[in-house]
Specification:
GO molecular function, one term: hexosyltransferase activity
Organism: Sphaerisporangium melleum
Domain Glycosyl transferase family: 183-341
Radius of gyration: 22 Å
Distance between the termini: 31 Å
Oligomer: single chain
GO biological process, one term: carbohydrate derivative biosynthetic process
Strand order of the largest sheet: 3-2-1-4-5-6-7
CATH class of the largest domain: Alpha Beta
Keywords: Glycosyltransferase, Transferase
Helix content: 40-55%
Largest sheet: 7 strands, parallel
Length: 379
């Protein structure tokens, strides 16, 4: 099958969508598909990567005439399916949707982010203007949590499947027996971009409150991996509360470094309330680490309370969950044992690829039979 992926952001930029799309491209190529990528992200020339780039402030991955460029590319390449990847708001990606519909090509749209109330209002407005929910498109998203707000907007007019993000589980599976030395500090880990929307300073508050609820004779330490614009605020918070002795901010890690870190971790924390999936939390789960996360986030698709970790709906719930796991070594070890001994299946690449192929077939049938929606407007 000839597949064209369209994404605002792609390598060499590093982020959740960029890495996931690149892994999907590799997995589909290894399965025998002919896969190409169209992106507005500048970078080196790579085989099969079409960079449709314009000079924009702050190197924003947007092209003012992207629809025309993408339409010409699709007309020339004639892929069997166009797979578009969007965040909350992704202008270039949605230009790809319009171009694919105008070219009469099957199109699948994957939404990688949570639609908040403002985003939902925006998409309702765009539907009123362009009627996009009437186009012949198939939708997917990465979790049940991310699906709910999309369904609230589309009201059943766009078929929507949940297809998990993919992970090479074997690469994260721990080797050797889990052991903890007596008196060793309980190691709490978080991995993610230090951006304000991820609330990293709130994570530090969570750790501080958890430390206050744990007896002093139980040592704690935390490693928060990542970089971003909130790093300065985090460093100031650490200094103001005397946390530098037990909380470290080592910056960005490679995948291999993260694997090594998780092998020595006791608890993984993913506190963002609007996490559409949580690939870092999935990696921790695959590595055997108990996960603490929001019950209303996408992490709840693969973490059950008391089984793979602990979930909470509020900030105080998360504080109690972290403190409980630090205090209760027996619970921590039971969850660790379960995570190490229980295979992940839904998030493995064979299952993810099968899910997308089902969606591709649905989109191709819709175009072939003309049973769904209408053509995109020419303007």
């Amino acid at each position: 099958m000839r597949i064209l992926h369209v994404s605002d952001c792609y390598l060499p930029r590093l982020g959740g969508i960029e890495v996931q799309v690149a892994d999907l491209v590799r997995s589909q190529s290894a399965s025998g598909h002919d896969v190409e990528v169209a992106t507005a992200t500048p970078g080196e020339r790579l085989p099969g990567v079409h960079r449709i780039v314009a000079r924009m402030p702050f190197d924003l991955p947007v092209h003012p005439r992207g629809t025309g460029h993408l339409l010409r590319l699709m007309t020339a390449r004639r892929p069997d399916v166009v797979h578009v990847h969007t965040g909350a708001v992704s202008p270039f990606a949605w230009m790809g949707v319009r171009a694919a519909v105008r070219a009469g090509l099957p199109v699948v749209v994957t939404v990688h982010s949570m639609w908040d109330p403002v985003t939902r209002a925006l998409y309702r407005g765009l539907d009123a203007v362009f009627g996009w929910t009437g186009w012949r498109i198939a939708g997917t998203t990465v979790s049940q949590a991310a699906a709910r707000p999309i369904r609230a907007v589309t009201a059943g007019r766009v078929p929507l499947d949940v297809v998990s993000n993919g992970l090479d589980v074997s690469a994260w599976r721990p080797t050797g027996e889990f052991r903890r030395e007596p008196g060793e500090a309980v190691h709490i880990v978080a991995v993610g971009r230090l951006a304000p929307r991820k609330q990293p300073v709130r994570l530090l508050r969570l750790l501080l409150e958890a430390r206050r609820r744990v007896p002093r004779e139980i040592p704690m330490r935390a490693t928060l991996v990542g970089d971003g614009p909130a790093r300065g605020s985090m460093e100031r918070f650490l200094r103001a509360h005397g946390m530098q002795r037990w909380v470290s901010l080592p910056g960005r890690y490679s995948r291999e470094q993260i694997r090594e870190l998780l092998a020595a971790a006791d608890v993984f924390v993913a506190p963002a309330p609007r996490e559409s999936f949580g690939i870092a939390a999935l990696e921790a789960r695959a590595a055997g680490v108990p996960v603490v996360a929001r019950a209303q986030s996408g992490v709840a698709d693969f973490v059950r309370p008391g089984k793979e970790g602990l979930l909470g709906r509020t900030f105080d719930d998360l504080v109690r969950a972290v403190a409980r796991l630090v205090r209760d070594g027996e619970l921590r070890e039971r969850i660790t044992r379960h995570n190490r001994e229980t295979d992940l299946t839904r998030c493995t690449w064979p299952v993810v690829l099968a899910g997308f192929e089902h969606c591709y077939e649905r989109a191709r049938n819709a175009v072939a039979t003309g049973t769904k929606g209408s053509r995109a407007p020419e303007h």
